[in-house]
Design brief:
mainly alpha; 0% strand
Length: 209
């Protein structure tokens, strides 16, 4: 529920900033508000279903020894399937935002977005396969592969954008030598932000693998 609260705060804050923005500057931003709302709703749905599922397991328990058995049995109920579907879709939305960012920044080379697009779609497919196929050794491999592809998507997008910004920095310096200091600092700062934002997901993804 903590994550739902974070999502809700981010959505409400983004919405308040959007409403305070002049009408002429709102163009193109409605899609981001709608995406944030979708992520918030899906996250709340997932948390609600998980809490309801755990409550039913606890309610049915006659002793603590039945916890694992009842919890495993709940994995075949609709609440678990719906929650898993929502989790996968939220992750996919986040990855598509990364791919869209790569597509916008690398607009001169739009084909480079095909690689992170393919890894994100593959990650979604493998995630659902790990959830909906009966448990076995192969399903654990699907889950590991899905996590690896999610991390790989993040690394690829960050690398492509950083390389594009470094190339733009060199071009700016070669055309306007007098702006080398200010241009270098601004581009370097943006690249640092991108790397720092990608680092947590990469580190925790590698730990999970």
């Amino acid at each position: 529920m903590l994550f739902v609260g974070i999502h809700l705060f981010m959505f409400l804050y983004g919405l308040s900033v959007f409403l305070e923005t002049p009408e002429a500057q709102r163009r193109g931003r409605k899609r981001y508000i709608a995406t944030s709302l979708a992520i918030t709703v899906l996250s709340a749905l997932t948390a609600s279903l998980d809490v309801a599922n755990y409550f039913q397991v606890i309610f049915k328990m006659a002793s603590i020894d039945q916890w694992a058995e009842l919890l495993y049995a709940s994995f075949s109920e609709w609440k678990f399937w719906t929650s898993a579907a929502a989790v996968g879709f939220v992750s996919f939305i986040g990855e598509m935002l990364l791919v869209y960012r790569c597509y916008i920044i690398c607009v001169d080379y739009m084909w480079v977005a095909l690689l992170p697009l393919s890894t994100s779609v593959s990650a979604l497919v493998l995630f659902y396969m790990s959830i909906y196929i009966p448990a076995s050794d192969i399903t654990s491999r699907y889950a590991t592969a899905a996590t690896l592809l999610t991390v790989l998507t993040n690394v690829i997008v960050t690398t492509l954008i950083s390389l594009h910004l470094l190339r733009a920095r060199r071009t700016l310096i070669s055309l306007m030598p007098g702006t080398s200091k200010s241009g270098g600092v601004s581009h370097t700062g943006i690249i640092a932000i991108l790397v720092e934002s990608a680092a947590p997901l990469t580190v925790f993804g590698v730990i999970r693998i």
